[in-house]
Amino acid sequence: MGSWLFLFIVGLFLAASVSGVGSRNVTYDGRSLIIDGQHKILFSGSIHYPRSTPQIAKAKAGGLDVIETLVFWNLHEPQPEQFDFSGQRDIVRFIKEIQAQGLYACIRIGPFIQGEWSYGGLPFWLHDIPGIVYRSDNEPFKYQMKKFVSKIVNMMKAEKLYASQGGPIILSQIENEYGMVEAAFRDKGPPYIRWAAEMAVGLQTGVPWVMCKQNNAPDPVINACNGRRCGETFPGPNSPNKPAIWTENWTSFYQVYGDEPDIRSAEDIAFHVALFIAKKGSYVNYYMYHGGTNFGRTAAAYVLTSYYDQAPLDEYGLFRQPKWGHLKELHAAIKLCLNPMLSGEYTTMALGKSQEREFSRLCCFSVNNDTRKTVVVTFQDSLYELPPKSISILPDCKTVAFNTAKV
Length: 407
Fold this sequence. Notes:
Layout: E1 8-9, E2 26-28, E3 33-35, E4 38-40, E5 42-46, H1 56-61, E6 66-70, H2 73-76, H3 91-100, E7 104-110, H4 139-158, E8 169-174, H5 189-202, E9 209-212, E10 222-227, H6 230-233, E11 244-250, H7 266-278, E12 281-287, E13 292-293, E14 306-307, H8 323-335, H9 338-343, E15 347-352, E16 355-361, E17 363-368, E18 375-379, E19 382-386, E20 390-394, E21 402-403
Parallel strand pairs: 1-16, 5-6, 5-12, 6-7, 7-8, 8-9, 9-10, 10-11, 11-12
Antiparallel strand pairs: 2-3, 3-4, 13-14, 15-16, 16-17, 17-20, 18-19, 20-21
Helix pairs in contact: 4-5, 7-8
């Protein structure tokens, strides 16, 4: 079955600017993040500072608004109380470079990060602490976790890098995909998640926190989606007062030894981004936007040295076409619709047996979910052709500015 969806929206003009002087107020509601009173639809890309020589300018040129990174605990604290933030470990320098490029930042502190990183980012010396149980309602683990998270937060505060201080960081993440394993911890899982949320919020960063793949994320922490098709699979925020956020849109996938490369097409990525936005998603992060290298023994078991080489910017920061260019055009087309999308009302209209359109008065997203058939439909006395499994974006509900299948 397929569907045609027209998203038809009307609204007022809202100016957007990343740069500014003084603190920024970052909040959210059920529509989106709100920065200094303005609702935002944001495109983000993951770049890992220890895995690459970050090409942030190229990411900005690709239409990104935000750079997102994990924070690597075992890289920064290889031995208890022995911290290393030098060279490629210099997260402060990385965040300041993001700021210099006029972009926002999101730091995913974890501190369990997965990320195909050795031990999921946890230091090996944790193993030696008597009675410790990782990622559980366990006092020895919670003590160490809070100490490291506080260390990172306080470093960012000392450099005035949170938006509340005039810096670029608008969002932080605590824990990582815990919902996938929470049941295994039985009665120790739910209280751990409640504690993690309370601990993070209590650090008073002045910006929102998220938990990915955590549908029971406690208020005010936002539950977010990870995966390839969040426009289809995400059950949505667990509160009507939280926005729909996609923290990991996998642009390909990591490789383990013996596997063929995972190739995800530019067309497929663009389709699912457009669908998520059409369904009132407001923040999409590409994981990864910039590939990298797992130097030394940093890779998780069996993971290749080359990491996400099929990202829009490859392992070396070179353009991976047509992916980089196609997504740049997608971002530009969606940004033509920002104002009506953020301030207008949405309507869905059926246009045929397997077609529908979600629409508002000044912007339309036309969606064909049929994977085999090109469809032609009539809307407002005009004919529109949609290739299989594609979305057309019409900023004025008349002229097609972009189609996800046309590279």
